[in-house]
Specification:
9-stranded mixed beta sheet, alpha+beta, 20 strands, 8-stranded mixed beta sheet, single chain, binds flavin-adenine dinucleotide, 11 helices
């Protein structure tokens, strides 16, 4: 759409990725549907998923995220396209005999979560967003400049590359890991590279995954096989996320498809037989990043704009959706009480509720990564013994699994 110079909204969300689009929909659907929202996105139309192939980017959605999508009325649309439930998870150490297995029945659930292709999830959310009368989608439009509230002006002004201006009471920055809004607002981050890259793609195997998600911890990085549901439901399609030290990842990217399948099968101890086919591979550098503050008056960060972490526990989107949920609740509560939602007290409450949890998850991922990267005999012994112990400790296992599922 074309926006006029004085286009005015209650809220402006920048970034129609999984987190930003969900946030816009939650804000528009909450309360009495009184808030009008601008959703600004740099990319052109949302592509409809091509179900003849698998999207190389998938997310492992927790039951908590699934429940959010159910409340927003978009889950059924995802299910009608393609989602892959998994009931079991098996994690093991390449350097020893320690392993842990988790099962949905242990926590009285039908499944531990769903593997959903990014394109499927995003298309389902955007199908509903596009029809919502309270949301104005402005795309393709890239944010160029920003004017946050000051003594002379109470509103936020977002200036697009086209020169047009969008005004609002609060700006939600959901513009991803390299957030331009975060830099424009001078919100610094703590960040460090893991020294690893993740290879993502989908593969075919000779044996069925039996709806189990697998993770093998190699000293060079974790390798995950995530079960995908194919047309014939044979269970032989999986999405892989193979995190490895940079030089090794580069070498694996340079292999032919046949060589890659063979190397991957060996790294996975042929748990699902032979790897017979690999789709196009993508390689993503892994960086841990955390904004020191999640807000400045008039603007809040959510999702990857606030934090990125190692994909080894598949929690990135789930954490971003939790950010969106908490921020939405705070905004709606403030609106009910006629408190301006760009106020520091509102945004500070959001930060307080989300920052510690995100930091805790990031710390845990870093700990896991270091623990399994160590070749020291003592550390290897301890982690294998620890895994075995934990596997036979149902109470603690249940607590861990319920937390990971967001229950
Ligand atoms: C290899 C890998 C595997 C992963 N696996 C999982 C998993 O299993 N489970 C999980 O939960 N997470 C996983 N993640 C993390 C997950 O993919 C991210 O956390 C998630 O995609 C972030 O969503 P987002 O909406 O915050 O950002 P993005 O998806 O990056 O969306 C940002 C949007 O903002 C737009 N934008 C950017 N700049 C501008 C601008 N200036 N103006 C307007 N628009 C702009 C972009 O076009 C984009 O649409 C994984 C990540 C990696 C790297």
């Amino acid at each position: 759409m074309t926006v006029g110079e004085e286009t005015n909204f209650d809220l402006i969300v920048v970034g129609a990725g999984l987190v930003g689009a969900t946030c816009a929909l939650s804000l528009a659907s909450g309360g009495n549907g009184e808030l009008n929202i601008a959703l600004i996105e740099a990319g052109p139309e949302t592509a409809q998923p091509n179900l003849a192939n698998f999207d190389p980017r998938v997310v492992a959605l927790t039951p908590h995220s699934q429940a959010l999508f159910q409340r927003l009325g978009v889950w059924q649309d995802m299910v009608s396209q393609r989602v892959s439930p998994y009931q079991d998870m098996f994690v093991w150490d390449a350097e020893g005999t320690g392993h842990i297995s988790f099962n949905a029945q242990q926590v009285q659930q039908a499944c531990l979560g769903h593997i959903v292709e990014n394109s499927v999830a995003l298309a389902a959310i955007m199908n509903t967003v596009e029809q919502h009368p309270a949301i104005t989608i402005i795309r393709p439009a890239r944010v160029k400049q920003l004017m946050l509230p000051s003594e002379t002006q109470t509103q936020v002004l977002v200036i697009l590359e086209s020169g047009e201006t969008v005004k609002g009471s609060l700006l939600v920055a959901a513009d991803g890991a390299n957030s331009k809004l975060r830099s424009l607002a001078n919100l610094p981050t703590r960040e460090w590279a893991y020294g690893q890259k993740a290879i993502v793609t989908s593969v075919q195997t000779t044996e069925s995954h039996q709806r189990t998600a697998y993770q093998r911890f190699l000293s060079s990085g974790p390798l995950a096989f995530l079960p995908l549901q194919d047309d014939r439901d044979q269970g032989t399609s999986s999405s892989i996320v193979w995190s490895a030290d940079e030089a090794l990842a580069d070498r694996m990217m340079a292999l032919s498809d046949e060589e890659f399948c063979e190397t991957l099968g060996e790294a996975f101890e042929h748990r699902l037989g032979e790897v017979t086919h690999v789709d196009k591979r993508f390689c993503i550098p892994l960086i841990q990043r955390h904004a020191i503050d999640y807000f400045t008056p008039g603007m809040a960060l959510v999702g990857d704009a606030a934090h990125t972490l190692h994909p080894l526990a598949g929690q990135g989107v789930n954490l971003g959706l939790l950010d969106s949920e908490v921020l939405t609740n705070e905004i709606l509560r403030a609106h009910q009480r006629s408190i301006p939602f760009g106020e520091t007290q509102i945004l500070r409450r959001y930060q307080r509720q989300r920052k510690a949890g995100n930091l805790g998850m990031m710390g845990m991922m870093e700990g896991f990564k270091r623990l399994f990267a160590s070749d020291e005999l003592g550390v290897r012994y301890l982690r294998n013994a620890g895994m075995k112990r934990l596997d036979h400790w149902p109470l603690l296992k249940n607590t861990i699994i319920r937390q990971a599922m967001g229950l």
